[in-house]
């Protein structure tokens, strides 16, 4: 247990669906991250939040919409996804940006 | 070419063997991380280092800044060490850049 939880652990959705991924950290950290991990590719950083403010968006398509209502919670809202968006989505947190990151278990997303 | 390259991509070993995984990078960095990812996805940070050597139990990580190279060693390997080991560097732009990982399988 790293202190970072993600729900759901598995998600299958159609291309016209809208769903949300949730991440919660119980570590008192101030930075939170969304990563995408596709098969045979390196982890890709999607978004970074510092003290609830988005500080990084790595050219992520608008069909992915993050939300950070407070330092403990991070959401990734999904709509009109494509099959190539199927991947493992990992959330992480750290005390501050540039500090060691703690990862959640990930959500395995399949877009049909 | 990726900015972070790991070798080998896949590694199999017998229980008890000494294992080395290598990471080379081509950018200036402020820190290098070694991460472990077990089947099922969860990632655990093993080491964060910017110089020299760190040891934790049977794991040892070294870095040579001049040669832009790091190694992760596992002594007396065990089947529970089977996982994907990922090298990541924090570049001068502050972003973490990840390698593609080394898949290790240790057989009893």
Please describe what this structure looks like:
The complex is a heterodimer of chains A (112) and B (108). Chain A has strands spanning 4-7, 10-13, 18-25, 31-37, 44-50, 53-57, 64-70, 73-79, 87-94, 102-103, 107-111. In chain A, strand 4 (31-37) and strand 5 form a beta hairpin. In chain A, strands 2, 4, 5, 6, 9, 10 and 11 form a seven-stranded mixed sheet that branches. Chain A is mostly beta strands. Chain A is globular and about 35 Å long. In chain B, 31% of the residues are buried. Classes of the chains: A mainly beta (112), B mainly beta (108).
Number of strands of chain B: 11
Terminal CA distance of chain B:
36 Å
Pattern of helices and strands of chain B = EEEEEEEEEEE
Radius of gyration of chain B: 13 Å
| Low-pLDDT residue intervals, each spanning 5 or more residues of chain B | none
**Low-pLDDT segments, ≥5 res of chain A:** none
Structural class designation of chain A: mainly beta
Number of helical segments of chain A? Answer: 0
User: What would you call the shape of chain A?
Assistant: globular
Helix content of chain A: under 10%
Q: Which characteristics define this entry?
A:
heterodimer, A: 112 residues, mainly beta, 7-stranded mixed β-sheet, 4-stranded antiparallel β-sheet, B: 108 residues, 11 strands
């Amino acid at each position: 247990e790293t202190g970072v939880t993600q729900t759901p652990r598995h998600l299958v959705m159609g291309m016209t669906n809208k769903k949300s991924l949730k991440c919660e950290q119980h570590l008192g950290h101030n930075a939170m991250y969304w990563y995408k991990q596709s098969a045979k590719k390196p982890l890709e950083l999607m978004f970074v939040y510092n003290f609830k403010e988005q500080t990084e968006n790595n050219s992520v398509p608008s069909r992915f919409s993050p939300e950070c209502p407070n330092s403990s919670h991070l959401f990734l809202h999904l709509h009109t996804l494509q099959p190539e968006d199927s991947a493992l989505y990992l959330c992480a947190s750290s005390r501050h940006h540039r500090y060691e990151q703690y990862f959640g278990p990930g959500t395995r997303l399949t877009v049909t | 070419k990726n900015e972070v390259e790991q070798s080998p991509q896949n590694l199999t070993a017998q229980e008890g063997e000494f294992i080395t995984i290598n990471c080379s990078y081509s950018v200036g960095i402020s820190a290098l991380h070694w991460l472990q990812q077990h089947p099922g996805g969860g990632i655990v940070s093993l080491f964060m280092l910017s110089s020299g050597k760190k040891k934790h139990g049977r794991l040892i990580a070294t870095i040579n800044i001049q040669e832009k190279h790091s190694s992760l060693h596992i002594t007396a390997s065990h089947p529970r060490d089977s996982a994907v080991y990922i090298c990541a560097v924090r570049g001068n732009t502050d972003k973490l850049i990840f390698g593609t990982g080394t898949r290790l399988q240790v057989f009893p």
